[in-house]
Amino acid sequence: MDWQKLLTQAGFRISKPRKQVMQLLESTQTPQTALAIYQQLRAQGARLSLVSVYRTLELFVSLGLISMVYEPEGSLGYVPASAGHHHYILCQVCHRAVEFAGTEDLAGLIYQVENQTQFLVSDHLLQFFGVCPKCQNKSKESA
Question: Domain 3-142 belongs to what architecture?
Fold first, then answer.
């Protein structure tokens, strides 16, 4: 996904802080919290505020450039998004996030939720937690 093209087509400029935030997210396999992004970028000498990081993340989410995921302990993290709808599984040990194709049909569940709550569902987040193969092997080796 060419995030810079999507950003400019939406009428936004590619500022240095926006570029730094996206480059950091693209360089890691684990979800990053806003505070972690801020601290890492400041440690690298970036001149930006925590508010700027939050605004950048909010913009990127609204444009579909990144996705929000919830860490096993409940904190909110961010990962780069690919085209289409996104589902994730997060390792509870190393916190690595893996995106997977949502092949299940959720239409029936959405219909049921709308009927029970009278809400009109506009989006959903499907996320699983588990232990990745690498961490499973480490656990077996140490036992």
Answer: Orthogonal Bundle (1.10)
